[in-house]
Design a protein that fits this description.
Elements lengths: L5 H15 L4 H68 L32 H5 L4 H7 L8 H8 L5
Pfam family, one: TatA_B_E
Protein name: Sec-independent protein translocase protein TatB
Subcellular location: Cell membrane; Membrane
């Protein structure tokens, strides 16, 4: 890049003062400053866009690798499932004829979960949820009774001395 020191900046300023003149120099300096600012903003925007594109490419590669790993895991699960089912059928092949239990009934090959247990509903749930202690309500200023405006004014009116 440019290596601009104090002495070089002073030399550029002196040449600009002689060439442009003292009347137009402030306006030219402002214009040059705005153009440099715009150029810096443009360069930073281009850098940000390039970084976003690179990040997007990295994310796409990462997504593809994760999807590939997922496919491999899925294939492994299916192959393990097939192996298990084959082994299970080999093991249970000899048990097909011995499907009767001691009481004479035959057992089924599918297992059914037991029906869900009955739960008694909580009947007074509104009462239980609203059972805030009176001392808590009094301490935190929770209104327990409705007061009219006149009663509130009478209650909080300063007492005559």
């Amino acid at each position: 890049m440019l290596d601009l020191g104090i002495s070089k900046m002073a030399l550029i300023g002196a040449v600009a003062l002689i060439v442009i003149g003292p009347e137009k120099l402030p306006r030219v300096a402002r214009t040059v400053g705005t153009l440099l600012g715009k150029a810096q903003r443009y360069v930073s925007d281009v850098k940000a866009e390039v970084n976003r594109a690179m990040d997007l490419d990295e994310l796409k590669k990462m997504k593809e690798s994760v999807e590939e790993a997922g496919r491999e895991v899925e294939k492994g699960i299916y192959s393990t499932k097939a192996d298990f089912e084959k082994d299970w059928s080999d093991v249970t092949a000899g048990l097909e004829g011995a499907g009767s239990s001691s009481d004479g009934s035959t057992t089924s090959s599918t297992w059914e979960p037991p029906p869900p247990e009955y739960r008694r509903p909580n009947k007074n749930w509104r009462l239980k949820r609203g059972a805030t202690p009176q001392w808590y309500k009094a301490r935190h200023g929770v209104r327990r009774q409705v007061q009219s405006g006149a009663a509130r004014v009478a209650r909080y009116r300063p007492k005559p001395k």
